[in-house]
Amino acid sequence: MDDIFQRLAAALLCAVAFSFSGDFSGSVAGMLVLLTVSSLSALLTDKRISSVLIMLYSAAVVFFPVLVCGAPLIVYEAVSMKKKWTALPMLLVVPDMAEIVPMQMIISAAGAFTAYVMRGRVAALEEQVAQLRSMRDETAEINMQLDDRNRRLTEAQDNEVRLATLRERNRIAREIHDNVGHMLTRSLLQSAALIVINKDEQLKEPLESLKSTLDSAMTSIRQSVHDLHDDSVDLRKVIDDSASSVGERFSVTVEYDISDDIPAKVKLCIAGIVKESISNAVKHSTGDRIFISVREHPAFYQLQVEDNGACKELADTGIGLKNMRDRAESLRGVISFTPSETGFRVFASLPKN
């Protein structure tokens, strides 16, 4: 905005200088030529053409002395393009000084000097603004990098906490299984032995009750151990481990977009299908790539495992395919097997409810 106002100020000084000329038509024509050259030099993207226009105007002063009145605007444009030398022809001796009114020379000289100073001030401000913008952009980029780094650190910390929780659940499940489970099993065997060797009818009912209580406790312990173990399954790690196990033969791509808060049965089902699909690819596929996609939708979970080995027919009698179908149907899901010349695809959809 300052640049526009200063151009207008320089143009106004030029108009005042032209107004002292006795030739009205010549002054108007000179002012029009000046404004044309100034506008083109400001608008043209090719600064070489702008430089040529300013040099032509400066050189024309030798033949049309009245054009010296445009010195303020011409100097401003030359300094703007950082090509001050294009205004040098104006410094040549004017052939006929009689055509120039002294006031015109004073206004032109003072205006040219003022324009030079003003444009230098604007250039300094523009340089400062550019530096501030560069600093702002660098600061914004650094902030974005810091935000991204903090997000990744937070995700890594959350993942470490989750893995630590899963490891602790596994440890507790093992402790319960190895210690409490074994002691309950031994107590059950001892109670059964006491029932067999007992001859006292009064002790028969209490021993049966004791055995029933121990059976209930054993069932509860088993259920708790299974729940702890199932909840501690890290589905992403299971899939990554399965993919890395065939990394020497296949190039495996995994797309995983599913929350951690999913039922244990769903995790076990997906993990089982992925393992079985990769095992089938190792045994039967002639390809070298496997694509695994696990996605969560509002109403269902979706699984796709596909390899690029040619497969024209499907032998649906294998136990592997039957196991995968049984897993999906146990959760009221659907699964399909699609053979083709470009590969074999396993596609499963498991409802959330």
Question: What this model shows, in words?
Answer:
- Helix 1 packs antiparallel against helix 4 (71-80), helix 2 (24-43) runs antiparallel to helix 3 and helix 4 (71-80) packs parallel to helix 5 (102-197).
- The chain folds into three domains: 2-127, no CATH class; 160-231; 235-351, Histidine kinase-like ATPase, C-terminal domain (Heat Shock Protein 90, 2-Layer Sandwich).
- The longest helix is centred in the middle third of the chain and has 96 residues, at 102-197.
- The chain has 353 residues and is an alpha+beta fold.
- It has a five-stranded mixed β-sheet, covered by helices on one side.
- The chain has nine helices and five strands.
- The protein has helices at 2-19, 24-43, 47-60, 71-80, 102-197, 201-231, 235-244, 264-284, 319-330; strands at residues 251-257, 289-296, 300-307, 334-340, 343-351.
Structural class: alpha+beta
> How much β-strand is present in the residues?
5-15%
Mean pLDDT: 77
Q: Give the overall shape, derived from the CA principal axes.
A: elongated
> Quick one: biggest sheet?
5 strands, mixed
**Total number of beta strands:** 5
Radius of gyration, CA atoms, in whole angstroms:
44 Å
How many individual domains?
3
Helix content: 55-70%
How are the strands of the largest sheet arranged? 1-2-3-5-4
Number of helices, where a helix is a run of at least 4 consecutive DSSP H or I residues: 9
Distance N to C terminus:
64 Å
Order of helices and strands: HHHHHHHEHEEHEE
Q: Low-confidence runs (pLDDT<50, min 5 residues)?
A: none
